[in-house]
Design brief:
Elements lengths: L15 H6 L12 H10 L19 H5 L8 E10 L5 E10 L13 H7 L2 H16 L6 E5 L2 H4 L4 H12 L6 E5 L1 H6 L1 H13 L3 E7 L5 H7 L4 E4 L1 H4 L7 H16 L3 E5 L4 H10 L3 E3 L7 E2 L17
Helix pairs in contact: 5-7
Length: 315
């Protein structure tokens, strides 16, 4: 099990007001995008921070063979990315993200190996390992939530709710500090089971969030059929806000208003520039997540700012 510090701390997190009003203050903090942010500030315009990807290795040539037994060999890591409250300007939770680090390689992000993991039949086991790691880490944080992405293989297990309850008992994490993210695809394949499972999770106090909202064919049907506490705007809806795209602004505004009417917490992911942040603020988005604040990092590299004590307010 990964060693966990007594608090999760973030070296690259700045108050929202400072990010919005003085984007140059991110220089040296929003690494490795700081050079781009400096260029954008000097040029008097916003520039997306998405160009420099997270430093990682390509998928190994013999990935299926190398992936087999990776969990047993301790090659998986959990990285954390903070989520910022629009109301307080503080980081109120962190999303747990899986990384694979074979010997001699840089960490590999999930899009490069998840299909292989699913094909191997190990997805549910690895997903439950991430859940346990995240809950264990969050139990050492002061009053903040941890968000965990669920896989279809993991969620479809009939004992999944029992697994969640056991992990919460073992780690001592309060259910209200765990957030589980699900996608439309996972829910629509086994809708009757999914509705019951989600309600059972909410009944014990776990937060349930619809992830990647705006990318599925039946997102509205999902909101009607299943119980949720929140939804996450997909980055594909956030990206066009950089160009002040009126159509995109109206779409996001409609989703935010719908979320508010349904009393759902609305999170925007993929926030990379002050311009995007200002637009999302004006539209009433509740929470922000993205490279503008911090990249996903393993806990042992987070060293200067407590997750629950980030100062500043959103104005």
């Amino acid at each position: 099990m990964q060693q966990v510090p007594k608090s999760l701390v973030l070296p690259s997190l700045l108050p929202l007001t400072q990010v919005i009003q003085h984007p140059s203050s991110c220089i040296g903090f929003c690494s490795p995008g700081n050079a781009l942010l400096k260029l954008a500030t000097t040029a008097g315009r916003d520039l997306s921070l998405s160009s420099p990807p997270e430093r990682e290795a390509p998928t190994p040539l013999h990935a299926p063979e190398e992936l087999a037994g990776a969990l047993r060999r301790g090659e998986f890591e959990v990285h954390y990315q903070p989520v910022i409250s629009a109301q307080s300007g503080q980081a109120v939770k962190a999303e747990a993200l899986l990384r694979w680090k074979p010997p001699g390689h840089l960490p590999i992000s999930p899009q490069n190996f998840l299909a292989l993991l699913e094909a191997s039949g190990d997805m549910a086991e690895v997903g439950n390992w991430v859940l346990r790691q995240a809950c264990h880490a969050a139990s050492h944080w002061p009053g903040t939530r941890v968000a965990v992405n669920l896989s279809e293989a993991q969620f479809s297990k009939r004992n999944f709710v029992t697994v969640v309850k056991q992990v919460l008992r073992d780690t001592g994490l309060q259910p209200s500090r765990l957030e589980l993210e699900v996608t439309e695809t996972m829910l629509m394949t086994k809708s009757c089971y999914a509705a019951r499972a989600l309600q059972r999770l909410r009944d014990i106090g776990v937060w349930v969030v619809l992830d990647d909202f705006g990318t599925g064919y039946s997102n509205l049907a999902c909101l009607q059929a299943f119980p949720f506490d929140g939804l996450k705007l997909d980055r594909s809806l956030v990206r066009p806000l950089q160009q002040r795209d009126v159509r995109s602004l109206r779409i996001v505004q409609g989703i935010v208003e719908l979320g508010q009417r349904l009393q759902l917490e609305v999170t925007a992911e993929g926030v990379e520039t002050p311009r995007q942040l200002r637009a999302l603020q004006a539209l009433g988005v509740s929470l922000f997540q993205g490279y503008l604040f911090a990249r996903p990092q393993p806990h042992w590299t987070l060293s200067s700012m407590n997750l629950a004590e980030t100062s500043g307010a959103c104005t």
